[in-house]
Design goal:
The protein has helices at about 115-125, 140-155, 175-180, 180-190, 210-220, 255-270, 285-295, 305, 310-325; strands spanning about 45, 50, 55, 80, 95-100, 105, 130-135, 160-165, 200, 225, 230-235, 250, 275-280, 295-300. With about 350 residues, it is an alpha/beta fold. It has a single domain, classed as Alpha-Beta Barrel (TIM Barrel), CATH 3.20.20.70. It starts with about 40 loop residues before the first strand and ends in a 16-residue tail after the last helix. It binds flavin mononucleotide (FMN). Flavin mononucleotide binds near residues 163 and 280.
Length: about 350
């Protein structure tokens, strides 16, 4: 758990190739694989079977290399890779990560080696593991999304997550995710150029998320993922400077969980697409809330920075929770909320 009192700026944490690859000092031991149980942990996300519902969130797991020293990546249901762009990007200037009460602000700005380097150098590494690979993409123009979808489909990723919700880039990014007609245009182009399922990642920085969800569903998306980070800001009261070099950034971590649960619930009530729920998941109960709200699977992001084993603990905790509730399959949690 993040320390409430700690307000210092953190150096860059593990982000794709920028990760330092060092084991953090304070980590709890790797959980043992759960005992063979009758509970079926598999879930279906837009026709793709995940062996369990726990995925790692884009931008918090790089391309898996740094985390492969902690556990076998095949333990995960899926890996959402760091956001890719058509050409390499250096990202934004530092400082670009700052802690907040119960979360972090980041303005990394899609630092990545570009889609071609991913296909040549990172995908073969991930393919050594029995895990579903979800490529996350951002374009400067709708056409760029199309080109990337074509390349990634041909390269054989399992799913494409179309990021129309990055708050940390100037071109494209959030603009596509906050305007239904642009969100629909990007979705159509992505679908037209993909031979694998397309999942569109929605932004929480909107008044009504169902408006965007409906536009994207009508445009042919196969699944939705939500939420991306919430725009936020911190200011150093002595220097009067914003803590982040970009002034603002995206908030993630436990602070955003209730927003994520609410938005997954609203979205699941509005469209009939499978949902990958995320935002502040650090414990099994958090993941179960997102599933009860309507998510078929969940992603763990910021929690990885405090504990690299968090996704495995969430997976095992979910199995235990579902078994205690007498379920025979974890997917029975999906949509099970009983609203007042
Ligand atoms: C450092 C950092 C980098 C991120 N980079 C991406 C990205 O490249 N693409 C993307 O779609 N989301 C990105 N995200 C958003 C996460 O995938 C996730 O939607 C969000 O952090 C909420 O989940 P969490 O609270 O579990 O972290 C990033 C988040 C963080 C903290």
């Amino acid at each position: 758990m993040l320390d409430r009192e700690k307000v210092n700026i953190q150096p860059e944490i593990v982000v794709g190739q920028g990760g330092n690859g060092q084991k953090p000092e304070q980590t709890s031991p790797a959980p043992q694989p759960p005992e063979a149980s009758y509970l079926d942990m598999s879930v279906n996300l837009a026709g793709v079977t995940l062996k369990n519902p726990v995925v790692v969130a884009s931008g918090t797991f790089g391309f898996g290399r740094e985390y492969s020293q902690f556990f076998d990546l095949s333990e995960l249901g899926g890996i959402c890779c760091k956001g890719l762009t058509l050409y390499p990007r250096e990202g934004n200037p530092a400082p670009r990560i700052a802690e907040t009460s119960l979360g972090i602000l980041n303005s990394v700005g899609l630092q990545n080696p570009g889609v071609d380097v991913f296909i040549q150098q990172e995908l073969p590494f991930l393919r050594r593991y029995d895990v579903k690979v979800i490529a996350n993409i951002s374009g400067n123009t709708p056409e760029e999304y199309g080109v990337m979808c074509e390349k990634l489909s041909r390269a054989g990723v399992d799913l494409i997550e179309v990021n129309i919700s990055c708050p940390n880039v100037k071109a494209g990014g959030l603009a596509y995710g906050t305007r239904p007609e642009l969100a629909a245009e990007v979705t159509k182009i992505a679908k037209a150029h993909s031979t694998v399922p397309v999942m569109v990642k929605l932004s929480p920085n909107v008044t009504d998320i169902t408006e965007i969800a409906k536009a994207v569903a009508d445009a042919g998306a196969d699944a939705l993922s939500l939420i991306n980070t919430l725009r936020g800001m911190r200011i150093d009261v002595n220097t009067r400077r914003p803590i982040l070099h970009m002034n603002t950034g995206g908030l993630s971590g436990p602070a955003v969980l209730p927003v994520a649960v609410r938005m997954v619930w609203e979205t699941a009530s509005a469209v009939r697409l499978p949902i990958l729920g995320m935002g502040g998941v650090s414990r099994a109960e958090d993941a179960a809330q997102l599933m009860l709200a309507g998510a078929s699977a969940v992603a763990v992001g910021t929690a990885l920075f405090a504990d690299p084993y968090a996704p495995l603990k969430v997976r095992d905790g979910l199995a235990e929770l579902a078994a205690k509730q007498g379920l025979s399959a974890v997917r029975e949690l999906t949509g099970g909320v009983q609203p007042w």
